[in-house]
Amino acid sequence: MTYLIAADLQAAPAGERFRALLARPEILQLPGAHNGMAALQAREAGFAALYLSGAAMTAQMGLPDLGIITVDEVAFFVRQLSRAAGLPVLVDGDTGYGEALNVMHMVRCFEDAGAAAVHIEDQLLPKKCGHLNDKKLADPHDMAAKIAAAARARRHLFVIARTDAAASEGIDGAVARAELYLQAGADAIFPEALTTAEMFREFAARVKAPLLANMTEFGRTPFFTAAEFQAMGYRMVIWPVSSLRVANKAQAELYAAIRRDGGTHNMVERMQTRAELYAAIGYHDFEALDHSIARTVIPRAMPQRHT
Fold first, then answer.
1. Are 117 and 159 in contact (CB under 8 A)?
2. Which domain covers residue 96, as residue numbers?
3. Residue 305 lies inside a defined structural domain of this protein
4. Which residues are annotated as catalytic?
5. Contact 18/116 with Cβ under 8 angstroms?
6. C-alpha of 101 from chain center
7. d(CA 172, CA 296)
8. What CATH number is associated with residue 49?
9. Mind listing the pLDDT tens digit for each residue in 109-122?
10. Residues 6+ apart with CB under 8 A from 248
11. What is the pTM of this model?
12. Which residues make Cβ contacts (< 8 Å) with residue 40, sequence separation at least 6?
């Protein structure tokens, strides 16, 4: 059913629903959803919450993940996911889009757009993907001030502090930063780009707070399953860019096929059908809201050529 139907609207704020999911015994699995359709498909697969990646947002805009996009551009994506699927969304807040006042503005904008949670990282602009080299870190006290500002501004948003310090300051530096960020008001910690199971376990043993793990492909972290992260002491896990990577690969193959074959006829079996698309977006539910629209009859098959 669509988000336009009042009976389907969630009464509890998104942040409260996110906290309720975290209270469950199993690790909270947050697949990345790069647009509203991906959000619907993730919900259909059985997920209870979603992740919105900055890298995925910028990539589908044709931009690198260097802290280029704005709060309003991110809020556009937040609204897509939260309205389409009705699930709590954890949003990548990059570095907070500025200093304390900018972070407070971000928090309110994200809440108004429907976000449940946000993570803010301790890099300096221009920031980089956490799994890349030579990241520039902010002073930990400056980062703590941002976390305090986020905690002060939020009404219900769950605030996660991400630290990228492990690569340059080691586990000791990352733990020290995490403890400072928790004192500033963070609800949870996201240690980015840990490279071994031993690092994940040590960080969890030393930081007494809900922890988020990042299972991105093609990065510095080896492949672990959700159950393995839970056994290592983590309460949340994201797969941030996976949906976009799969979609982009399929699109590239489609365009190559059209160019090679002069049409899409060799790709039809790999396409979502019109019926499948309409079922996913609740097409007939929208039609039912306006009785002036005739109920659509979906063509059962493509017409055959007559030569």
1. yes
2. 6-240
3. no
4. 51, 65, 92, 94, 119, 121, 129, 162, 192, 214
5. yes
6. 24
7. 61
8. 3.20.20.60
9. 999 999 999 999 99
10. 59
11. 0.93
12. 84, 85, 280, 281
Distances (CA, A) of 221 to 56, 199, 216: 18, 10, 7
pLDDT in tens, 182-207: 999 999 999 998 999 999 999 999 99
Residue 273 lies in a domain: no
In a domain, 274, yes or no: no
Q: For residue range 166-178, what is the model confidence (pLDDT) as tens digits? A: 999 999 999 999 9
The total number of structural domains that make up the chain = 1
Given a contact cutoff of 8 angstroms between Cβ atoms, the answer to whether 120 and 103 are in contact is: yes
Is 163:136 a contact under the CB 8 Å cutoff? no
Tokens of 20: 């309720």
Name the residue among 39, 34, 28, 46 with its Cα closest to residue 237.
28
In a domain, 296, yes or no: no
